[in-house]
Amino acid sequence: MTTSSAFSLPALGLLVLAAACQPAARPAAPDSAATTAAAPLATTLTGQTYGEPITAAGARPLAELPSLLGTTDSAQVKLVGTAATVCQAEGCWLTMELPSGQSMRVRFKDHSFFVPKDIAGKTVVVNGWAHRETVSVADLRHYAEDAGKSAKEIAAITQPEQQLNFQADGVLVAD
Questions:
Q1: pTM for the whole structure
Q2: S-S: 149 plus which of 9, 70, 131, 153, CB 3.0-4.6 Å?
């Protein structure tokens, strides 16, 4: 046995012993919206699906979306969060609130499906593409009309907006 290998075995043993004697890390207290949104991620989350059939397995909390996107313009993801508002004309879109207070509009791929108009406040899982985009004044006014905004509120929309949006191929509305 060489001197260097004789020295490294006891040193390695001391490192292992020191690491084993450290107190276990305690989990952080659940104080964020991301933790709350992550709670229903169990594969037992059930409900009605619209569009392509999906489950909650592998869904990430909506609060993680900015970090999932990073500097890219789009990413394919499965997210879980709460439906904030729903198109009252047909159920052709819904919004979800990010922790920053910004809304993310979820539209449905090829307008091939709709969701119930009464799901605001319910937990939803959406699967598809998240993307950054500039939304035109005409589209913003259209969405405001669909949401039941007043003529005055609609007329006040005069500038396009940079938004985080989502095109879903499937939505699960939790029971």
A1: 0.71
A2: 153
